[in-house]
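Lecture 7 notes: from sequence to structure.

We start with a single chain of 470 residues. Read the sequence below before looking at the structure.
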Amino acid sequence: MSVASLPVDGLIRDIASGHPGYLEFRYHNRRSRSLGVRKGELNENSYKQTEGAGIRVLINGAWGFASTSDLSRAGLEKAVSRATNMARAMSPRKKQPAELGSTDRLARGDFTLSGYFELDKMDLEEKFETVRSSEENLRKSSKGIETGVCQYTEVFEEKYIFNTDGSDCWIRLVRPEFRFLAYANDGSKIARGYDSVGATGGWECMFQNRSLEGFIETASSGALDLLKAPAASGGRKKVILAPSMVGLLSHEAIGHTVEADFVQAGSVAQGKLGEMVASELVNLCDSGASEYARHAGGEMPVDDEGVLTERTKIIENGRLVGYLHNRESAHRFETAPTGNARAWEFSDEPLIRMRNTYIAPGSDDLNEMIQGIDDGFFIDGPEGGQADATGEFMFGASRVRRIVDGKLGETVQKVTVSGNAFSVLKSIDAVSSDFRWDLGSGHCGKGQPAKVDAGGPYIRCELLVGGSQS
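Now the structure, written as tokens:
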């Protein structure tokens, strides 16, 4: 039974009206579908729907949480009772009582993002045919391509959020994504090329930066180039990072260190507000909106505490100026909530999470930035990696070209890039006027998944470049 068929306002408000503390209600209906083709054969065709409500209460400084898929009045009342009893049981044990930061940004009304209804109406057969033909075109793009894989995923999100402080809103959005994998074989070794895109919006929004054919070409040429590419010479190098790598650095190596719960736990960003942590050219933000370009993969108008999202400045002209907060951490830091509370399923409690994290564009020309490097690399194609609370990171990259005497040169094998994120940010001496969201596929993990995006301009900086990877 869907909440949409119930008298939502009357039912939830009536249950909440007599509650002795703060009550937060979050209905969530998620529908996800995946279609995959490998070597001309359908290898994935799945559909999943989850629907239910998560209820949090705050009584005498203690949280209680319960969830239920029983959306009848009786089911919801039982969940409220369980959460309330939990909070009351924990209250005497709280050494630091929880309190909520006040805000005038509590959401009310309907927030339906573009593409939701249009993609929902699009014929499933049309989606599958695009996946099938894309894999065929990828596999047949060259005799050297042995295997092609294409996968399409879409996630429809519908939420209703109400709390006793004043939030009362519906949110609807959809996040589609495409992945393209090509495997090339020359008889002695196998190389993999890939490209991907994830966005918030309708079908066409996935192709605002590159055409469907462009993704196929990138995956195919990436695999073929790596078959014959020489190993890269390692060492500390001056490099150009493409928007995808800038996004990876911004999200993994910087963004997590400024999430307020990690700050409280002792991340490298603790106690550094007001300090210069980057070049004056760096302006780094996290936003619920899709800044500078449309359809970022982590776009969300309202967070899961019912707070309107906003652009949150993290680094301004090189200076650390802010952290990412939910309402509880905002109170502890004596600041305003930033709209960064997010929960993956209705059965999850909201955590402090990023949305769309980026370095803002500058004024430099990319060609002139390349001309300023005598011996370095142009680095694209993030392959993941690791970062920790100290800001130290190591990422892989699969689309890498040498820069010699100010000109782009040959493609080299995969490399690793590493360093301390804040030291790398301090080394930035050029920021291009370009901008692109380029990290919207896949998920961020922090106890529970989250759909995010990251990106930025091209930047010129110094970091440690490692040799080829297997």
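DSSP finds ten helices and 24 strands in the chain. Keep this in mind for problem set 3.
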